[in-house]
Amino acid sequence: MDSRENKVPPKGEIAQILVEFLEVAITSIVFLKGIYPSGAFERRRYTNAVVQKARHPELQDYIHSTVSGLLPFVQKGLVDRVAVIFFNGDNVQLERFIFKLTVNQSYESKVENSNLEFALRAFLIKLSVFEPLTKVLPPDCKWEITAYFQTLPSSGTSKDAKSWIPTDTKQWQQPPVITPIKSMNSQPLSLQLYLEHPSLSEPKPCE
User: Fold this and answer.
1) Contact predicate 51/28, CB 8 Å
2) 116-142 pLDDT per residue, tens
3) DSSP 8-state assignment for residue 34
4) Please, what is the Cα angle at 29 between 33 and 146, to 5 degrees?
5) With 47 labelled, which of 88, 114, 122, 145 sits at a CA distance of 20 to 30 A?
6) How far is CA 174 from CA 110, 196, 203, 204, in A?
7) Rounded distance between C-alpha atoms, residue 1 and residue 13, angstroms
């Protein structure tokens, strides 16, 4: 998680920086939601910020392999959103933390790594003080990482596509309530992070 040198990112490295950031940010969300004991994580530094890294091998591998598998699709501009979804034992969604992203791989102007990483570090700082993250979830809560693609990648032409399967979580029938967390709108990367949860008018699941 060491910060990169202060240099101009070549084409493709912007996507790599974004994917590494998503791994750290998703781990931070899972840690702050209290899904696992605090001992399942350890403190590390990323872009000169104190963050949490998963210690449990299966948890670490799930987050790392899932997010890393997005890299070729981010590079091709196929990924619209990445979500961390928490749902109850009946597979009903309780909360969605959404990363909406746009990467301009054709951007030709100079962008230093340090400037990009500084902007992304602000998201991690905001997450650490975001009050809704302290909302207690039910003991049977589960979670998953979901990616929303602009177009579905062909599983026949990419081995990475085979690792992504359609989600079977139950969708909300009413528009969700959206709480903005942090955003940046610049070239070559635009990124929004916001929380979605069901509206009060959302029908309750049958007992």
Assistant:
1) yes
2) 888 899 999 999 888 777 778 888 899
3) T
4) 110
5) 145
6) 43, 12, 8, 11
7) 15
